[in-house]
Amino acid sequence: MVEYMAYKKRGRKLKLCYYNGEFKSLEEISIPITDLLVQRGVGVFDTLRTYRKRPHAMSIHLKRLEESSHALGIKLPLDIQQIIGVIRKGIAMMDCEEVQMRIYVSGGDVFEDGQFPHPRFFVIFEPLEKAPRENYERGVALAPIDMDRPFPHIKSVFYLPAYVGRRDDKEALEVLYCPDGEITESSSSSFFMVIDGRIVTAPTEKVLDGVMRQIIIKLAEESGLKVEMRCPLLSEVSTAQEAFITGSIKEILPVRRIGSQHLAQVNGPVSQYLQHLYSAKIEDYLE
Ligand SMILES: *Cc1c(COP(=O)(O)O)cnc(C)c1O
To answer: How many domains does the chain have?
Structure first.
C-alpha cells in the first residue's frame, strides 16, 4: 500500500494490480518464471470495463472466467464473491474516469492428474483505452488465416496465431480465423457480416461466447433484424454490405478490409443502428 501511495504521488499514469491479497502498482508485481503461464502459455483471462465507474456485465464475464478456467482443469483460487470484492475495490482505487480490467488465472507451476492444482490469480486495472476514433470512422483491416482458434470456448492467454498471422499485413488490427474459408471470429473479437440485410455470425459452438456478441444478437433480434447463425464465408465478402467486430472494450468496430477484399460500406446503417441500440441499453448491464 505504501508503494501505491508513493506511486500515485509521482503522478504517473495509474495502473494497478491485485495479486496475493494486495493492490500494488503494476511494476511492483511479478510472478515466478516457473509458472506454466510463462513457460507454456497456460492460463485463462477475461476483460471487462466500467461505464460511469460501474462494472459492465460483470456476472456474465465472471461466469465465463469460471467456465474457461474449469475447461482447462483449473479451480478458481477465489470464489466469485471474492473476485467481485477485488473488482469493486480496484475500481474505487483507480484515479481515472473509466477503468478496464483483465482478470488472469495462470496454470501455476504444476500439472498433475489432468489438473493445475496451484493456479495464480491476478487482476490488472488500467484507465480505459478505447481504439482511436479514426478506427471507428474508417474501419479496421483484418488478416484472414486458414485455421481454427484452438479450444474456442476458452478465453485462453495463448495468442500466438494472433501475432504470427498478421506479420505480413502491418495495417491489420487482428487476425480473422477462417478455417476452409469459413469465418469464425477474430483474435480478440466476435465477427459479424451483413449479407442481404441479414446479420450473419458463426454459431456459438464454434466461437468464444462473447459478452458483446450475446448482447448484440439479443438487441438485433428484439428490434426485428434477422440474425443468421452460420459462418459467413470469405467468398461472400465481395457481396456483403458491412462487417464489424465486437468486444467489451471496443464495443462495435467497423471492418474496412479483410485481406485484399474491401467491404462495400464502412460503419454502414446496420453497424450504426446496433451501436445506437447498444448505447441505449448500457445502463441495464451495470452492476
Ligand atoms: C475476448 C474475446 C472476444 C470478445 O469477448 P467479449 O466478451 O465480447 O469482450 C471475442 N473473441 C475472442 C477470441 C476473444 O478472446
So the answer is: 2
CA 40 to each of CA 34, 36, 107, 109, 214: distance values in angstroms, whole numbers, following the listed order? 10, 5, 9, 10, 31
In whole angstroms, what is the distance from residue 205 CA to residue 121 CA?
28
pLDDT (tens digit, 9 = 90+) per residue, 63-121?
999 999 999 999 999 999 999 999 999 999 998 999 999 999 999 999 999 999 999 99
The predicted-structure confidence for 162-194, as pLDDT tens digits, reads as follows 999 999 999 999 999 999 999 999 999 999 999
In a shared domain, residues 243 and 157: yes
152 and 273 both lie in a single domain: yes
Find the 209 Cα to ligand 1 centroid distance in Å: 7
Q: Residue 239: is it exposed, middle or buried by C-beta count within 10 angstroms (0-12/13-18/19+)?
A: exposed
Closest residue CA from atom 1 of ligand 1: 188
Say which CATH number the domain at 12 has.
3.30.470.10
CA of 228 to the centre of ligand 1 (A): 19
Regarding whether 120 and 143 lie in a shared domain, the answer is: no
Say how many Å lie between the CA of residue 95 and the centre of ligand 1.
Answer: 26
Pocket of ligand 1, beta carbon within 6 A:
47, 149, 155, 185, 188-190, 208, 210-213, 246-248
Q: Which of 248, 249, 252 to mutate to test the pocket of ligand 1 (most atoms within 8 A of CB)?
A: 248
